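Citrate synthase: structure, please.
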Amino acid sequence: ETGAYTYDSGFSNTAAGFSNITYIDGANGTLRMRGYNLHDLVKHCSFREVAYLMVHGTLPSKNELDLFSKYLTEHSLVHEDMHHFFAGFPSDSHPMAILASMVTSLSSFYPDLNQEDSNFDITAARLISKVRTIAAFSYKKSKGQPIVYPRYDLYYCENFLHMMFGSPVRKYEIDPLHTKILDKLLILHIDHGQNCSTSAVKLIGSARANLYAAISAGICALWGPLHGGANQAVIEMFKCIRKDNNDIQKYINMAKDKSNPFRLMGFGHAVYKNYDPRARLAKELLDELFQKRNITDPLLDTARRLEDAALKDPYFQERKLYPNIDFYSGILYRAIGIPTNMLTVMFALGRLPGWIAQWKEFCDNKGRIYRPRQIYTGPGERPFVPIDQR
Ligand code: SDX
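Here you go.
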């Protein structure tokens, strides 16, 4: 991660600082996964292919992709006993709370995935597949609807939409354009170097806790509104602005006011000091979907006006603040039927292959346990005072 900032995470041991997975040039807005430009991967690949690339380091041959897809299909069910967990959550539970809990519980049902000797191809495919199923089940739980089991004749993204929007009384009709948009959106989120949630995954992994525990920590970190939770916060911000007479300038002024905790959600980035290439690609997908389906979304009008006003404002220009991945992704997910409370779950589904790849790379490199250092700023030594004298 070059250019935008020098970042001493305190994780100074080498395994934390070096990686051959994702290259980000924050100053120029460049993003490459395993050497491939993100634009090419989004244009030419399915999410399955790029997930394989992240975990294995190379794009799959046709046979390799078929085998990986077979693993994804064969491992799409979750243990029936896990269904009882869903019943225990309050109906208004946030799906990220359910996802994090259920992923941790996978280690109780699939202990072999913790062992070094397990076939990592299957390990990765099984986790990617089951987390997708858990995500769809958590949505059904939030809607009070019966869960819909995966189908073995559908690929990853089609199966997810089938489990999300199908029902025992109405078959989900596969929409190839929605499947394509979902495929591409998940690729846009697939990895992003040493971000907050990936750091959490590697930190837990550095203690040699199992992969589920590490991924569950990544899910929890991603939930934060300054990180992956921003995509939900962006949609809520757009809705607030529209309810507030679409007063764009009021929110620009609030974001500039240091005494106000409000930040323009979906804007700014710790690394990009240029337009986030993923936001640009998300806009292109939006234009394609909206033109082909002749649809509109009033939030898109608000988004475009907010972006335009912010990019013209000296406060944002001086600080090199641009739209990031979360600014447009929520509108795109809405357009294929994904509700606001599921947006960060979608980010987690996309990021999962990247987390797995980063965890594996760290463990393969025998990274040392993370032990960031602190600078002590507390009082000097003090004589003890018994409680009856305090
Ligand atoms: C993701 O790390 C990754 O790669 C993350 C991610 C990934 O794929 O994993 O890309 C995903 O998390 C994207 C970011 C999603 N979060 C948001 O959209 C929340 C809104 N953005 C801000 O909170 C902020 O921009 C962050 C959290 C993203 C970055 O925080 P930083 O690194 O502290 O921001 P900065 O140092 O670049 O800020 C510089 C200045 C500061 O003002 P000054 O002290 O110089 O006066 O810009 C200001 C900041 O206050 N600023 C903003 C702002 N973002 C930064 N002011 C108003 N609105 C904003 N959105």
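Notes: The first helix runs from residue 14 to 17.
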